[in-house]
């Protein structure tokens, strides 16, 4: 079997995964650069695999376009290497620390609820935060997230109920931030709630999110003035892990390009 046939099969498989994944997420109204770009990339791979010989022949006989085509593939391989480094960073820099230094507060960032219950990803974040809250009962726990589309209660309320029911964390230790719809707002809206308890963002604060999200969340927090943060990354469920990591790659790059942090 020729190498080109293996290339077509590989690209067709990768393209199908990216295309279907992006299409499903877009259909669920999750439309952002982290879903649209993988969708378009998957569509391109599928078309290229299907018309491989026609496309290669066209560029072979059109020298100027051929140079552009090869340069495009060079950029793709550079991007793929950078993606590999990003994945490697996530896998190596999110080891769960056993001993956390004393903190004044623990902010748990929202990640969606389903039928009034934390999503699998959000539950992992809460499971990550709970032992720290139990070990440090004087630390306030800020659960952050507004009302998702189609839901009747806020993420914050669902998170608070989860912590109380599963870990017996007292309601008096939990602060509900029920308005935010993004990481930026999670952190911004938590500030006045902490200030009301005489906790400033210059004091030691733990921020709990998913492993793939720690890098971008830390950048956003630092831009807002958080100066003494400990990032805690919760394991992402296996069924969504690499999809989430891929989407986060695009989200992190776009945030950097748009000077969001």
UniProtKB/TrEMBL annotation:
<dbReference type="InterPro" id="IPR014729">
    <property type="entry name" value="Rossmann-like_a/b/a_fold"/>
</dbReference>
<keyword id="KW-0812">Transmembrane</keyword>
<dbReference type="InterPro" id="IPR051599">
    <property type="entry name" value="Cell_Envelope_Assoc"/>
</dbReference>
<feature type="transmembrane region" description="Helical">
    <location>
        <begin position="67"/>
        <end position="87"/>
    </location>
</feature>
<dbReference type="InterPro" id="IPR003848">
    <property type="entry name" value="DUF218"/>
</dbReference>
<dbReference type="GO" id="GO:0043164">
    <property type="term" value="P:Gram-negative-bacterium-type cell wall biogenesis"/>
</dbReference>
<keyword id="KW-0472">Membrane</keyword>
<protein>
    <recommendedName>
        <fullName>DUF218 domain-containing protein</fullName>
    </recommendedName>
</protein>
<keyword id="KW-1133">Transmembrane helix</keyword>
<dbReference type="GO" id="GO:0005886">
    <property type="term" value="C:plasma membrane"/>
</dbReference>
<feature type="transmembrane region" description="Helical">
    <location>
        <begin position="35"/>
        <end position="55"/>
    </location>
</feature>
<feature type="transmembrane region" description="Helical">
    <location>
        <begin position="6"/>
        <end position="28"/>
    </location>
</feature>
<dbReference type="GO" id="GO:0000270">
    <property type="term" value="P:peptidoglycan metabolic process"/>
</dbReference>
<dbReference type="Pfam" id="PF02698">
    <property type="entry name" value="DUF218"/>
</dbReference>
<feature type="domain" description="DUF218">
    <location>
        <begin position="105"/>
        <end position="250"/>
    </location>
</feature>
